[in-house]
Specification:
By secondary structure, the protein is an alpha/beta fold. It has helices at about 15-25, 45-50, 65-80, 95-105, 145-150, 160-170, 195-210, 215-220, and strands spanning about 5-10, 35-40, 60-65, 85-90, 90-95, 110-120, 125-130, 140-145, 175-185. It is globular, with a radius of gyration of 16 Å. The N and C termini lie far apart (about 40 Å).
Length: about 230
């Protein structure tokens, strides 16, 4: 199987349907990818939303709450695709994402790739073209699953497992930029990155974990809302 789209969901009943619908519209064959939803201890109707879809590409994994890192690692472990993409439950993946990344990962040495994305906030949309991997967002990355498994997955208790593994592997992994948009980032004050304190706390944890990567951590894009 070429790819797995992993959706980490916690009390996501209000937005998950939209995310799943977008994941089902990839412009590649149905047999080439799957959608793995990790229900991370939700107490709402998240699981019911997933079960309302009858498409065989969708698989539901339920677990006790383990946070973003734990849900990410569960998704990687349970997935079957050579490439894994993470989609937050309140975002949308664009139809060409898997096709674009599949072509990129034909380069056998590539461990990770990241694309452009649209950012939506309060009715406006703009195209973001990150100049550096740390300027990208979770939904903009694709990962070679075997590379993630060799690193034993993500680690640390932050809301940014993607930055954690990039910092850990910065001098070893090969990373490529895809100059096309791959997802839509829906900004919200209610999301994890909408909390200034939560973002600041996670960035501090990254600085504590990787004191020799301060310059890279400074490149991480701002999540401040106007």
């Amino acid at each position: 199987m070429q790819a797995s789209i992993i959706i980490r969901a916690y009390n996501a009943e209000e937005t998950l349907r939209r995310a799943l619908a977008s994941a089902l519209t990839q412009d590649t064959s149905k047999e080439s990818y799957e959608i793995v939803v990790v229900d991370d201890g939700s107490t709402d109707a998240t699981a019911s939303v997933v079960r309302s879809f009858t498409d065989e590409r969708i698989r539901l994994i339920q677990q006790e709450n383990r946070g973003l890192t734990g849900a990410s690692n569960t998704g990687v472990k349970e997935s079957r695709g050579d490439i894994v993409l993470f989609l937050d439950a309140d975002d949308e993946i664009l139809p060409a994402a898997i096709s674009l990344f599949t072509r990129t990962f034909k380069h056998k040495r590539i461990d990770c790739a990241y694309g452009n994305y649209f950012e939506e906030y309060e009715g406006s949309r703009k195209l973001e073209e990150p100049s550096d991997p740390f300027k990208a967002l979770n939904g903009a990355y694709a990962w070679r699953r075997s590379s993630l498994l060799r690193e034993q997955g993500f680690s640390g208790d932050t809301i940014f497992p993607e930055y954690e593994i990039l910092l850990r592997t910065w001098d070893r992994w090969q990373i490529m930029h895809v100059a096309e948009p791959v997802f839509i980032y829906s900004r919200s004050r209610e999301s994890l990155t909408g909390s200034t304190d939560r973002v600041a706390g996670s960035l501090q944890k990254l600085r504590d974990m990787y004191p020799d990567r301060i310059e890279e951590i400074r490149k991480i894009r701002s999540y401040a809302l106007e």
